[in-house]
Amino acid sequence: MNTDHQGIKVKRVTSRKRSRDGLRSHLTPAKKRTGSPEEPEGGHAVLMMEEKLEGDCSDQEDLFGDYDSILGDRAFLAKLEEVEFGMGCDNRVASDPGFDGAPHSPEDGYMALRTGDSKDCSSADVVSSLRDTFMDELPSSQLAFQQELLKKGAWSTNSSASPQTGDATGRTTRGRPTSRNRKDERDAEAQAKSSVTDRLKSAMRENATVSSLGVSTSAARKEAALTKEISAAMEAREAGPAGIDLGPFYGLPSKVKELISKQRGIKDLYDWQKTCLTLESVQQRRNLIYSLPTSGGKTLVAEILILRELLCRSMNALLILPYISLVQEKVRGLASLGLELDFLVEEYAGSKGRFPPVKRRKKKSLFVATIEKGHSLVNSLVEAGRLQGLGLVVVDELHMLGEGKRGALLEMTLAKVLYVSSSTQIIGMSATLSNTEDLQKFLKADNFTSDFRPVQLMEYVKVRDTIYEIHPKEEECFNFSRVLNFKYSSSMQKVDPDHIIALVAEVIPAHSCLVFCPSKKNCENVADMICKYLKKGFLKHREEEKARLLQELRESGAGALCPVLCRTVPFGLAYHHGGLTGEERRLLEEAYSAGTLCLLTCTSTLAAGINLPARRVILRSPYVATDFLKRSQYKQMVGRAGRAGIDSLGESILILQEKDRLSVSPAVLWSHWVSFVSCSSASPALRSQAKQLLSSPLESCYSHLMDANGQGIHSLILSLVGLKITRTLEQIRDFVSGTLLGVQQSHSCQEKSLWEIVQDSVEFLRHKGLISVSTDCENNTVLLVTNLGRATYKGSIDLTYCDVLYRDLSKGLDGLMLSSLLHLVYLVTPYDLVSQCKPDWMVYFRQLTSMTATELKMASVLGVPESFVARKAAGQSVRKPADPEVVGRLYLALVLLSMLKETDLWAVADRFRLTRGFVQSLLSSASAFCSCVLHFTEELGELWAYKALLTELMRRLTYCVKAELIPLMEVAGVQEARAKQLHGAGYKTLCHLANADPSLLVQTVPNLSKRQANQIVASAKMLLMEKAESLQEEVNELLSLPADLPSS
């Protein structure tokens, strides 16, 4: 071609505009030029421009600047016509058999084009050379368009008209065209002449509506490196032998190690962790149970295995935790990892969670769930036929299998995973497992056990003022250690006969201390008692931090502050139990971890919840309420002693009193008398009891499917039939034989055989109208679930209440009161909480007298007339007693209604004379039960009217704040007080939080640390990403071609 064109090499990455007046060329429209009217000539000018571009441009700049469009530039279109005309000439010249139509390299062809070289080249080669050179440099919006053209063959030439042959030098030549071929070429030229312009105009219009992706080359290189490492790890996993390190970081990219080091401060793994991660069972993805003492680092191993599943195998994972607070903490902690490594963290706790979860084509999800939500999640995946997409299930605190109703739910969940999906790996971990043989058989798992502790633990027992060191494995269990040397006045001796003040004064404030108490009230009393006798110097220790903590506590209570905390926090002390709100517990936990508080008096629930280690752990009594401590409870409590990386050792001290000897039988007393004769200061009964607690084996873990007259086995069989996992009695028996109950038949099924239990359970379900018996086409007896049965298992409704709930909902339709929320709130008030709250009749009566006439009528219809409550409040006898379940449930509904109206937790708790922790727990339970009732009504057509009503009510119960704060409270870790602060600072939406600068948040939001700000922003980004991905998946689903589309 003899045209004089310049090649401008341009890379567009971001949409940020920047003036580039100095880089205008003759391709720039005249109205946009601001430089010299003289145009540069030839290739030298172009090379100079390229050098300037290379020197001036960064991958974050937009080289197009404010260059709007070239569609209106006739000069450019004229040059395009010249190019097209040249392409036509090239085709005619190329018909000469002696013409060398292909340059030696794409660069040769490109230089010939841009320098105006007299050497001609074919149109195919010109286009090919342009394509090869510019494709990698196109903006992201244009690249997708050009790739689409390539797929359609827009860049290909008419090869049938001029077949290519290879010469001796490897270059291609074209055959002579015939007259017919010439006509085809002319037609093609004419078509190309019009189509190229049209395509270019169309592409430019399309580019104008597409936003470019803000991805830098450095980010792209990092992403490519991460992808390469993940691919290498996957290949090594498939090809490498078992028992060896499969990747830079145990099969994971090195970026994971960097993130763990940066975010957790963990530079290296313990030896037991390295051994566990390289076990043959782990490499071959067999099920595994591992058990270590508390604070040994079990969770990190589980997280590494989860990351392997998400990144290397591209499979979803499920992490089951025992408490809502632990789920929320884990979601906050893993959100930043998910953002860095491109996976989603989804919360399934309370009323949160989608069933079944969104099916994602690209990103994989980690579902973090409570035991109840984990069971519902597995059920939904089984019903949708997607359980095989769940690659890994991790259960923390596996000993929960032996914890009543919740243990039965966990057993059902794991049994279904084992039966339905053989490819899903199960990992269980715990610090207190005894009969691991039964659990191994149930889970078909290997076992790994270690007694590793990062900090040495020294156990002691205190009797009167004497302390004995414990040696559980030795015959002489107790060895004299020392006598307490603390001067007690007569008044102190009366207030503190157990010398708790002396024990804590030895370690605080330089070190931390936990004091476990048998009851909530005892926690408050002990904290109050200790601070009264501490020196005034404690008030000066971290004075500013403690003042800030009091302010945060006051803000979380809308200006109210517990008087006990008001007295104890200035001394660095606080109590911690279920009577506190979730926000109060979080603030106290963070203050304790930071060293602002040096002592917590707490109940046993702290040992099973968040990890708060201490230098010294004191057990105020060997009781939890009125029950003597179990060995597993004791191990969890003393396991908090010793802070890794801070303390060189940890101490636990169990306080025993003379009265405790009454719980030991004379036979036990006599058998241990000889062993403890040297310990003259303690009674034989006391020493025997202590040894039994300190050196006996852990309690065994047994199935609870048969508890409460077999409610667990009934629920299991109902879901098996409803999910079509089993359909006959024989199949049900085979399934049940694989559960923990089946493994422990000799212990749990002593009165009946497994076959009899299955038959009785099926009959029970048939009698309640939850399943029916039918025959298939081969006259075999099969079991089918009824509509009520399906609603029951999909709503996770307790079989004890399913018929009562259906009756209440059906009756409510006849006269549903919508002028007030009271009727709806009553219908979603949990049945099982009624026994935990006895009505205060005077409060009850005052609430009824403040009701509207419609509300009073509704209460009377339910069976709670005003006259009944008035008589109870006056202490008079009642002629016609009311149903105590209905009375108690309506009382709780009034508490919930007050919360929805006022949203002031402290005021409502004070009015009803309840602890604020119980009110908050009631609100959370009602929200979760409302979600269950919603799923229950969705399966029953006659209850269709409840769907819209309960959806909005569930949202209000979940957050119980003003509507403007709800988007902020969706973020994990953001409670009402923090949401108000964020909203006041201008962060009013989820998008605001996701795009916030953590440093700016710290400056604008009071009492917000940098770590908290980072967690909030990361959690908001994760939630925003999850919502965006869900919407995108819905779009893809709507636009995808149906698999069952009828064909002609």
Shape: globular
CATH topology of the domain at 456-661: Rossmann fold
Cα-to-Cα separation, first versus last residue: 52 Å
- Our Rg estimate from Cα atoms comes to 37 Å
Instruction: Name the CATH class of the domain at 456-661.
Output: Alpha Beta
Which architecture of the domain at 456-661 would the CATH scheme give at its second level? 3-Layer(aba) Sandwich
Strand proportion: 5-15%
Q: Low-confidence parts, pLDDT < 50 over ≥5 residues? A: 1-72, 90-134, 136-142, 154-177, 211-215, 239-246, 661-682
Spatial ordering of strands, largest sheet: 12-11-10-19-16-13-15-14
Instruction: Give the % helix.
Output: 40-55%
Task: Count every helix, treating DSSP H or I runs of 4 or more residues as helices.
Answer: 45
Number of DSSP strand runs: 21
Counting copies of identical and different chains, the oligomeric state is: single chain
What name goes with the CATH superfamily of the domain at 456-661? P-loop containing nucleotide triphosphate hydrolases
**pLDDT averaged residue by residue:** 79
Please state the structural category.
alpha/beta
Largest sheet: 8 strands, mixed
Domain Helicase C-terminal: 499-709
Biased composition (Basic residues): 8-19
Main location: nucleus
InterPro entries: DEAD/DEAH_box_helicase_dom, Hel308_SKI2-like, Helicase_ATP-bd, Helicase_C-like, HTH_61, P-loop_NTPase, POLQ-like_helical, WH_DNA-bd_sf
